[in-house]
Structures are given as structure tokens and as C-alpha cells.
Design a protein that fits this description.
This protein has one domain: 3-Layer(aba) Sandwich (Rossmann fold). Helices cover about 25% and strands about 20% of the residues. It contains six helices and eleven strands. The strands form three sheets. A five-stranded parallel β-sheet has the order 1-11-6-3-2, with helices on both faces. A four-stranded mixed β-sheet has the order 7-4-5-8.
Length: about 230
């Protein structure tokens, strides 16, 4: 197909020309388009999910339960308690690498100093702890959304323990709410990230016998500190 013809078809689609074939999103072979709105899934918030609860649980409770089910840990801490919580986690580590944390950098470094845990250069293979922030958390699945704009990706992948700092106001019920906020998130600070990654618990893989193994392609331990306002 000539480039000009390809671009003509693309422009037609973007301009709404596919309405003739059954609506925006309809594939060219005439099959039905994706439903709008999408049906609820287990990753939906409890108010709209397939197992609706009359009174949805607090977001943190659901987040902590979902994360524990995949081998992670979640703790609710106040801002003033953050240095002590970090010190407790860092006590067993010989060194930490740290993402760009903005205003959280000061309490993080205070906690590491209390534990006698040095801050190592990004990518140092001897680091036992990697500390990042997250821009969103999903209560339905225990997932956190990490942005490459916040620092080097190896901080969340290389050390055996990944510590995530998540403001409580950034905890959303389900994937629908996460998707609603993506455009706003990508424009924050005028710096679009090269990647957004959803992380759900420790790295997990299985062999041909379906025996799960943790920590093969990433951290074996994931801890999320959800900070109450």
C-alpha cells in the first residue's frame, strides 16, 4: 500500500469516517466494536465490579488485602512516621538506591541515616533496597503505577527489596479510575514519561511444571507505604 493511501485511510478513521461501519472503534471486517461502557471486571472498583458490596471497603484495606494475596506488604503511615518506618525496613540492608522523590527525599534520607544504610549510586548491584514513589495505586489489584520520569528504572528492578511510597490521596478504586487519570498524569510537570509500568507485588515466574518462583526478574520483596494526609 502506498504511503499516501495509508495516510488517507488513517485520516478517515480519525475523522470519524468509521461511523458508517458501526461506530468508532469498529474493526474494518465489520465485527461489533468494543462495548461502551466496558463491563466490570475483578480489577474494577467495588462500587461497579462484578462482586459489588453494599458498603465498599476503605481503599487501603482492599489495597492491602490484594497486595498480600500476591506476596507483597502494605502499611499505612503518617508523614511524621515515615522516617521511622523506612529505618525499620532499611535495617537489614547494606545500601539503598533512591528514585527522585521530591519533598519525600528528606524523610527518606533521615530514615536511611537512622538505620545506618548508605545511599548508593543508581544501578549499584550491591544495593539491597530500592526506594521509589508511585503516582497511583489501584485498590482492586494491589498494583502501583510507576513512571520513568521519576528516576532510573533499575531502582525498582535491581535490588531484592522494592520500597514504594504512595500518597493516600493517590489510591484509586479500580482500573477504570486509573485510566480516567492517565492523561492528567502524563502531563504533570510538563514532562511526559517514556514509560508507565503497573507493578503488582514481587517478581513472579513459573517453570514448565507451573512451580512459582519469586524474585527471578525483579525484587523478591515489595513493600508499599501508603501515607495518610
Amino acid at each position: 500500500m502506498e504511503r499516501s493511501e495509508f495516510l488517507r485511510i488513517l485520516r478517515e478513521r480519525l475523522d470519524g469516517g468509521d461511523r458508517v461501519r458501526g461506530g468508532r472503534g469498529a474493526p474494518p471486517d465489520g465485527r461489533d466494536p468494543l462495548p461502551d461502557p466496558y463491563p466490570p471486571t475483578p480489577a474494577s472498583g467495588e462500587a461497579r465490579g462484578p462482586r459489588r458490596r453494599p458498603t465498599p471497603r476503605p481503599a487501603f484495606d482492599r489495597f492491602a488485602k490484594a497486595l498480600a494475596e500476591v506476596g507483597g506488604q502494605a502499611r499505612l503511615v503518617g508523614r511524621t512516621e515515615l522516617p521511622e518506618a523506612i529505618a525499620e525496613i532499611a535495617l537489614v540492608s547494606d545500601g539503598a538506591i533512591v528514585h527522585e522523590l521530591g519533598e519525600l527525599g528528606s524523610p527518606v534520607r533521615e530514615g536511611l541515616a537512622r538505620a545506618g544504610c548508605p545511599v548508593l549510586p543508581v544501578g549499584d548491584p550491591s544495593a539491597g533496597l530500592g526506594i521509589t514513589s508511585a503516582i497511583l495505586g489501584v485498590a482492586a489489584t494491589g498494583s502501583v503505577l510507576l513512571s520513568s520520569a521519576q528516576g532510573h528504572r533499575t531502582t525498582a528492578l535491581l535490588p531484592p527489596t522494592h520500597l514504594v511510597l504512595l500518597p493516600g490521596r493517590r489510591l484509586v478504586p479500580g482500573f477504570e479510575e486509573l485510566c480516567d487519570l492517565l492523561e492528567e498524569i502524563c502531563g504533570e510537570g510538563g514532562r511526559s514519561p517514556s514509560s508507565l509500568v503497573l507493578v503488582t507485588g514481587p517478581s513472579r515466574t513459573s517453570d514448565i511444571e507451573m512451580t512459582p518462583v519469586l524474585g527471578v526478574h525483579g525484587p523478591v520483596r515489595v513493600i508499599v507505604l501508603v501515607m495518610s494526609e
